[in-house]
Every structure is written in C-alpha cells, then in structure tokens.
Amino acid sequence: MRTRSWVSGFLTVFLAGGLAAAPAQPRLALPSGGSVTWATASGKTRLDIRTSKGKRYTVPVSLDPLVAGKARTAKLQLIGEKDAHYLILTDSYASLPLGMSMCQAGEETFLRVIALGPGRARQTFHRKLASCRENIELAEPGLTWSPETGTLRMHWLSAPQDREHQGEQTVQVAGDGTVQVR
Prior knowledge:
Blueprint: H1 2-18, E1 27-29, E2 35-41, E3 44-50, E4 56-62, E5 73-82, E6 86-94, E7 107-116, E8 121-131, E9 137-146, E10 151-158, E11 168-173, E12 179-181
Antiparallel strand pairs: 1-2, 2-3, 3-4, 5-6, 6-7, 7-8, 9-10, 10-11, 11-12
C-alpha cells in the first residue's frame, strides 16, 4: 500500500514537472495579423517571421562587437510594415561593459529593414541608432515613419561618427523593401 502511494506521488510530481510549459519564445504581434519571434545565440539573432498570408521566413541578423557576448535581445519593436513586403524593426541588446562601471546597464540599438520577397527574406538596411559604447543617442522622437510616403527619418542628439549629415538621416523604403538613403 505504501509503495503504491509513493509511486503514485512520484508519478504525479514527475508528470507535473514533465508537462510544465517551456518558457515562451518572445513574440511580437504585427498589426497586419502576422508575427515575429526571435532567438539570440553566439552573437547572432534569428528572426522568425510569419505574415498574415501564412508565409514563413527566417532571417539571421548579425550583431556588432559592442554587444555583450551572451546578451539576449532586450527589446524588439516594430516601426513600420507593409504586409508581405517588408518590416522595419529596432532591436536592442546589452552593451559590452567598460571599466569603472561604464555601460554596465547600457544598450546597443539597431534599425533593420527586412524585405519579404518571394521565396526568402533578407535584410536590406541596417543602421546603429543608439550605443552606450559609442555615445550615440537618439533625440525624442528619434524615428519618424511615414507609411504614406515610405519615408523614415532618424534624428540623433549624438549621431554616429560615420554620418555625412550630423544629427539626421532620411531613408526611402520602396514597396519591395529596398532602401535608398537620401
């Protein structure tokens, strides 16, 4: 009787633990009805995109060396979309720490345009928007998206050093997700 009770209790605990739900993968719902999930490992993030039309895409995106080695995606935000054509996203990660506690809680943030073409998706534009390590900071508002014209304006308080026009940049996103810097 005791053995049966012990085995029953063990099975209850084992099955309850075994059936516990795995941690949910982060998910960003798109206004069009699609979604984006993501995972980060070994300095790369993989975006898994599902459109409202049922198409699925996987897009690997690289991170720069100023992102902390084992950092996970801290935040993924949708800036704009044209269903089944392209997504405009920002993704943020913990900065690689500096000495004297600098950048211990800082972030590196990137803008990405992902074209969803027939058969495959690809990143057509990439820009660093903010960086604790490089002292890059967006203004408020830092990004202005106009879906009517396909224009995205970036405005910095402290701009990236490789910029011709300090403080501001405008890009035009075509219907197929290709980007032209203005």
